[in-house]
Amino acid sequence: MELPEDYKEGKKDFLGAKIDLRKRPFIPREETSYWVSLAIEEIKKDSTCLDLFSGSGCIGLAVLKNIDNSYCDFGEKEDLFLEQVKINLELNKIDNHRYSLIKTDVFSNINKKYDFILANPPYVALSRINEVGDDVKEFEPHVALFSGFDGLEIIKEFLSKAMLFLKDKGVIFMEFDEKQLKDIEKIIKNNYSKYEFFKDQFDKYRFIRIEK
């Protein structure tokens, strides 16, 4: 089994941010950059953001690189990936007053509200593990990929709590697997009234925008 090319190179560009991969976080994907670019169009200067399930920190870094005076907290439960986020913040020369690193399992250590919560949670269903590429299973972190039998375990927890961490008129962007759309809609109907599903550049439903 050959090491993925991005790990070989040790770095990747993500919407103008340089992403170091030496700690082997989940490799940033094209479909993620697509919805993050749309979120960036909406995020204004001075906005406060939370990049939850940060991994490499690519999502929050793209915000900080592209939006003047924006602020972003990076929430991640793995110490190794928090180290990776710190490396990438320094690599991109982000002033330390513009961010904080928070060790958190979903919202366990979050104690403030945000204008935007940007989330790419683990969402691959263990029931579909055979559809995952062998190189992904071999080399990429399973903690960033899998979330229970149906892939919804962490998404359910995230969506049940996220509203409590949004300011008035705050917005959530969350990535998911297209096959989970109907199940996610059932979950959010209990907590949210303003939401819309969107397709990615490959014409697959890939992310949801939810407004408080």
Descriptive keywords:
Rossmann fold; 7 helices; alpha/beta; 212 residues; 7-stranded mixed beta sheet; two-stranded antiparallel sheet; globular
SSE arrangement:
Elements: H1 5-9, E1 11-14, E2 17-20, H2 30-42, E3 48-52, H3 58-66, E4 71-76, H4 79-91, E5 99-103, E6 114-119, H5 134-139, H6 153-161, E7 166-175, H7 181-189, E8 194-199, E9 205-211
Parallel strand pairs: 3-4, 3-6, 4-5, 6-7
Antiparallel strand pairs: 1-2, 7-9, 8-9
Helix pairs in contact: 2-3
Would you give an account of this structure?
This protein has 7 helices and 9 strands. The chain has 212 residues and is α/β, with parallel strands linked by helices. The protein has a single domain, classed as Rossmann fold. Strand 8 and strand 9 form a beta hairpin. The longest helix has 13 residues.
Total individual domains: 1
Q: Give me the secondary-structure category.
A: alpha/beta
The total of helices stands at 7
CATH superfamily: Vaccinia Virus protein VP39
* Overall radius of gyration: 16 Å
Quote the CATH topology: Rossmann fold
Total DSSP E strands: 9
Beta-strand residue fraction: 25-35%
Mean pLDDT: 94
Strand arrangement, largest sheet? 5-4-3-6-7-9-8
Residue runs with pLDDT of under 50 for 5 or more positions: none
* Main pleated-sheet profile: 7 strands, mixed
Q: What is the CATH C-level name?
A: Alpha Beta
- Give the topology string: H per helix, E per strand: HEEHEHEHEEHHEHEE
Helix percentage range:
25-40%
Q: Give the overall silhouette.
A: globular
- CA-CA gap between termini: 45 Å
**CATH-derived architecture:** 3-Layer(aba) Sandwich
